[in-house]
UniProtKB/TrEMBL annotation:
Residues 590-669 form the Lipoyl-binding domain. Residues 162-359 form the ATP-grasp domain. Pathway: Metabolic intermediate metabolism; propanoyl-CoA degradation; succinyl-CoA from propanoyl-CoA: step 1/3. The holoenzyme is a dodecamer composed of 6 PCCA/alpha subunits and 6 PCCB/beta subunits. Interacts (via the biotin carboxylation domain) with SIRT4. Interacts with SIRT3 and SIRT5. Its EC number is 6.4.1.3. Residues 43-490 form the Biotin carboxylation domain. GO terms for biological process: lipid catabolic process. It comes from Cyprinus carpio (Common carp). One of its GO terms (cellular component) is mitochondrion. Keywords: Acetylation, ATP-binding, Biotin, Ligase, Lipid degradation, Lipid metabolism, Magnesium, Manganese, Metal-binding, Mitochondrion, Nucleotide-binding, Phosphoprotein, Transit peptide. GO terms for molecular function: ATP binding; metal ion binding; propionyl-CoA carboxylase activity. Pfam families: Biotin_carb_C (PF02785), Biotin_carb_N (PF00289), Biotin_lipoyl (PF00364), CPSase_L_D2 (PF02786). This is Propionyl-CoA carboxylase alpha chain, mitochondrial.
């Protein structure tokens, strides 16, 4: 390649290092929602937040603005968590497993009594849609900041909610309006509806307990996994089956209703970018809806809310086909994960509204008061490896962590800090990164910049995938559906593919940074420790390994400028870099190479988690694709299968074991 010149200050932001996320200094966020607090409007003196992580922190922030004291609950491993530090009081409610802590109703009720909390905000997940929890609070005279138990029951049960939706003249998906008893009945019902079908937990949400089936065998397997996940996540293994609408958009309507019969729809959120039925990128508004469709969806969402006398913030989810026909999917009777983008375009603080409504105040707004001001985009930043099935969980400690809050119109909802641990017990979300702009183009450019300036070290994260999504031509044009990821990346996500120009920039920048670092390491208090290189010599020959490509580069320095030229060019597509001196590169050729492992004969865990079931024993014959064991990671179950037809040589795990990424599970002959 031709000589490439790079200034020592490296003022130019190179694409290659955008993907490495250069560290930036912290600044002040410009919020796009406000808590208009009337000190004469008394609500509660103390609120307990029955949750953890970013949503607990989010609720605490609004409570502080309203002058309300807060109580955090936590498991023993969360004792130093950010939400615990933010709250005025904190109570340990049990050990790490959710069933013994954040789902432990007895312990949380004791915490309420112990602290004298007048109300409980459940956040999302955990007990947020548990009617028994709401009943127990009511029995103690404690306010549940959410809808009443009737609405939770009606909308939390997908079978009942579908019947209510039909009666309220809300468009619904064809399917079986009852509880599926067993796998064989599931096969029978699926055959009557016609494949493909969606098997999902009646009491579920968040993509858990949900499987798509295209044939009888997948229906049997889907029934088993969905029922197990449903029981594990919600304590309710009932399932329903409905027609799967192929290639739809997932668009939801935010509703807000009070105890006086008033209800509003706060526009839509586009949530079509998903993996394993869980959202990855959301935006508000949607590029797809016209004003008439938006109004029709909003009015049906409000009609459903009024049908169950709903009072709080809630979300009605719809599937929308290519002709803008929309069908009711479910109603989430809680604060939604992606609520920040609605706050950005409406200016409303939804947590504030929930607290007001729970106290019995009327809504302050009319439907005509609800605007669409600008555009907001949310990227869910996860501790996941995006190169494995678009994101398998990663655990570890955040050795370095800095949010891009120095940028204007950027909001980060998080519940972690540098030094925090990401464990196998809880959801792998690191944060919700939100950007706002007057236009979608402006919001997208701001998201690109924010992702480039987000520093995360210590765990594998999905920022490379998020960044590729938001700059992909299909996403930029709004041509998306729930199949976006598998369609754009049919062989899985492989990372950014460098152009020839980007490759030259990356090689030149890497070489220049390496030389600069070498020179810096020779200095001590401004003086050279040892003069390794003669003062007049400013020439270096380096070997830069870029994945499997080897590049011999010549680097020269003149003042504060570096010039890099390639001696031998060997083009490659990926960018995993290693820099060696010329001598080290020569000697490395004599190093023995590690023999690749025969992955067809062994099964290793692709992620940290716990073993739910082992389906084989030594001596068993297994067929290619047959299930060997099931690993549960962060409340999702994953079936591990045989890579070939063979006999089982040995089994190295049993149900209940905790395994790490790469641990040996089973060997085949």
């Amino acid at each position: 390649m031709a000589a490439y010149r790079s200034a020592a200050g490296f003022q130019r932001v190179l694409l290659a290092f955008k993907h490495v996320c250069l560290k930036q200094r912290c600044g002040v966020i410009i919020c796009r929602y406000s808590t208009v607090y009337d000190p004469n409007e008394k609500t509660f003196d103390k609120i307990l937040i029955a949750n953890r992580g970013e949503i607990a922190c989010r609720v605490i922030k609004t409570c502080k603005k309203m002058g309300i004291k807060t109580v955090a609950v936590h498991s023993d491993v969360d004792s130093s968590a950010v939400h615990v530090k933010m709250a005025d009081e904190a109570v340990c409610v049990g050990p790490a497993p959710t069933s013994k802590s954040y789902l432990n109703m007895d312990a949380i009720m004791n915490a309420v009594k112990q602290t004298g909390a007048q109300a409980v905000h459940p956040g999302y997940g955990f007990l947020s849609e548990n009617k028994e929890f709401a009943k127990r609070l009511a029995a103690e005279g404690v306010t549940f900041i959410g809808p009443d138990t009737h609405a939770i029951q009606a909308m939390g049960d997908k079978i009942e909610s579908k019947l209510i939706a039909k009666a309220a003249k809300v468009n619904t998906i064809p399917g079986f309006d009852g509880v599926v008893k067993d796998a064989e009945e599931a096969v029978k019902i699926a055959g009557e509806i016609g494949y493909p079908v969606m098997i999902k937990a009646s009491a579920g949400g968040g993509g858990k307990g949900m499987r798509i089936s295209w044939n009888d065998e997948e229906t049997r397997e889907g029934f088993r996994f969905s029922s197990q996940e449903a029981a594990s996540s919600f304590g309710d293994d009932r399932l329903l089956i409905e027609k799967f609408i192929d290639n739809p958009r997932h668009i939801e309507i935010q509703v807000l209703a009070d105890k006086h019969g008033n209800a509003l729809w706060l526009n839509e959120r586009e949530c079509s970018i998903q993996r394993r039925n869980q959202k990855v990128v959301e935006e508000a508004p949607s590029t797809f809806l016209d004003p008439d469709t938006r109004r029709a969806m909003g009015e049906q969402a409000v009609s459903l809310a009024k049908a169950v006398k709903y009072s709080s913030a809630g979300t009605v989810e719809f599937l929308v086909d290519s002709q803008k026909n929309f069908y009711f999917l479910e109603m989430n009777t809680r604060l939604q994960v992606e609520h920040p983008i609605t706050e950005c375009i409406t200016g409303l603080d939804l947590v504030h509204q929930m607290i007001r409504i729970a106290k019995g105040y009327k809504l302050q707004q009319k439907q005509s008061d609800i605007p669409i001001n600008g555009w907001a985009i949310e990227s869910r930043v996860y501790a996941e490896d995006p190169y494995k099935s678009f994101g398998l969980p990663s655990i570890g400690r955040l050795s370095q962590y800095q949010e891009p809050l120095n940028l204007p119109n950027v909001r980060v909802d998080s519940g972690i800090q540098e030094g925090s641990d990401i464990s196998i017990y809880y959801d792998p979300m690191i944060s919700k990164l939100v950007t706002y702009g007057k236009t979608r183009e402006e919001a997208l450019k701001k998201m690109e910049e924010a992702l480039d300036n987000y520093v995360i070290r210590g765990v594998t994260h999905n920022i490379p995938l998020l960044r590729e999504i938001i700059v992909h031509p299909r996403f930029v044009s709004g041509d998306i559906s729930t199949k976006f990821l598998p369609e754009v990346y049919p062989d899985g996500f492989k990372g950014h593919m460098l152009t020839a120009g980007e490759r030259r920039e990356l090689l030149a920048t890497t070489a220049a940074l390496y030389v600069a670092a070498q020179l810096r390491s020779q200095k001590f208090l401004g003086d050279l420790r040892v003069s390794i290189v003669p003062a007049e010599s400013r020439q270096w020959e380096l070997c830069v390994e870029l994945d499997k490509g080897v590049h011999m580069l010549g680097v020269s320095r003149a003042g504060n400028n570096y010039t890099v030229s390639e001696i031998v060019q060997n083009i490659t597509s990926h960018f995993k870099l290693r820099v060696l001196s010329k001598l080290a590169a020569y000697l490395s050729k004599h190093m023995p190479e590690k023999i690749p492992e025969d992955t067809s004969s062994i099964l290793r865990s692709p992620m940290p988690g716990s073993v739910v079931a082992v389906s084989v024993k030594p001596g068993d014959n297994v067929a290619e694709g047959q299930e060997i064991c099931v690993i549960e990671a962060m409340k999702m179950q994953n079936s591990m299968t045989a890579a070939k037809t063979a006999k089982v040589k040995s089994v190295h795990c049993k149900a209940g074991d905790t395994v790490g990424e790469g641990d040996l599970l089973v060997e085949l002959e």
